[in-house]
Each structure stands twice: as C-alpha cells, then as structure tokens.
Amino acid sequence: MSAIRAVVFDVGRVLVQWDMRCLFAKLIDDPERLDWFCSTVVTEEWHFQHDAGRDLDEMVAERKAEFPGHDDLIDAYATRFLETIPGNVSGSHEIVRDLADRKIPLFAITNFASTFWRQFRATEPLFDMFGDIVVSGDEKLAKPDARIFDLAARRFGHEPGDMLFIDDNAANVAAARDLGWHVHHFEDAGRLRADLQARGLLG
Question: Are 156 and 163 contacting, i.e. CB atoms less than 8 angstroms apart?
C-alpha cells in the first residue's frame, strides 16, 4: 500500500495552461514588439509580485510610470487576466477525476493573485473536488517559501510525508521535498499518470 494519503496539485501549467502572450498577442501585432513587451513590461517576474500579495493598483500605477505610453496594455493585464489562461493541460483533469473516484483526498497550493483566482475559480467546477486550496495571494506567501507549505500541511490536516505534491516548477518541487513531502516534477499528464500508478494511487 502507498504511504501517500492525499494528493496536492499546483494549478498553473499543471491543471491549466498559462501564457501571458495569449492575451497580449491579441493586442500587439508586431512580433518584435510583443516579445519586448512580454519580456520587459508585463513579465512573469513582475506578475509574481501580485501572486505574492502585492496590491494590483499599486503595481499597475508604478509600471505605467516606468513605461509611459503603454497604459492600455498594462490595464489589460489587470482587467483581462483570464485571457492568459487558454485552456486545460491535456490529460490532467482526467487524472483529478480518477483520483476523486478512488476517494483520494485532493488539495492544491497555487501561486495565484486573490482577485484573479476568484475570477478564475468561478469558471472552473473541477475545483469542487478539492478539499481545500491554498492561494498565495490570500496568504501573502508564495511558493517556494517554506511557510506556504507548512501552512498548507496544517490546513489540509496531513503530515508532509503523507502527501504527494505535484508542480511544474523545479524550485517549488525542491522546496517541498526538503520539507518531507513526496513530490512529482510535472512535465505532462502521461508521466504523472504513470507515476501515480507506480505509487499505487491509480490502477
């Protein structure tokens, strides 16, 4: 029998696709300008501050001052974030459903801004299957900070050694492993399913 009693998912790039270019490619026709904007103005590194709990209005105002002439595009980040989520990661939702069918407790830890999470959560019934979801923007703690994993363990009611944590980010996986969690570094649903079968969590 597997020692794992619960499975904990990341959300972005494990359960759903996420790419800021999906939004900005609709707004910027020139490929070179698109590359520049997504690597310099609205970057994933900058966005991470909002995931970690920084105020959106403050971030947007600061960025507009730093990059004048791009107000409409920076506003689009704030008002059209769901367009950065183009769809589900192939095969992952089926795995969640299969685990739920086997009565395995499901949880999530996601780096996701509070407002954006509420908007997205309302569109995705898959998360009705989850017992609890720790959202970085709500807690003002973000992976790979050890404190968010400790908080999650307390909330979920399981010891780290009783849980499998699944994430696409190597730093997050390493942080969880160092704290005693079982881990899976997500690459695709096929490899995840094979790992879950090898651990006896799926047939």
Answer: yes
Q: Let me know: does 9 contact 89? Beta carbons within 8 Å.
A: no
- Domain hosting 157: range is 6-17+87-198
Q: What is the pLDDT of residues 50-95, one digit of tens each?
A: 999 999 999 999 999 999 999 999 999 999 999 999 999 999 999 9
The enclosing domain of 127 has a CATH number of: 3.40.50.1000
Determine contact, residues 199/4, Cβ cutoff 8 Å.
yes
Q: What are phi and psi of 110, to 5 degrees?
A: -130, 135
pTM of the model: 0.96
Cα 151 to Cα 141: distance, rounded to the nearest angstrom: 9
CB atoms within 10 A of CB 82: 13
| Inter-residue contact 42 to 75 (CB < 8 Å) | no
Q: Answer with the one of 39, 66, 84 that is the final residue of a domain.
A: 84
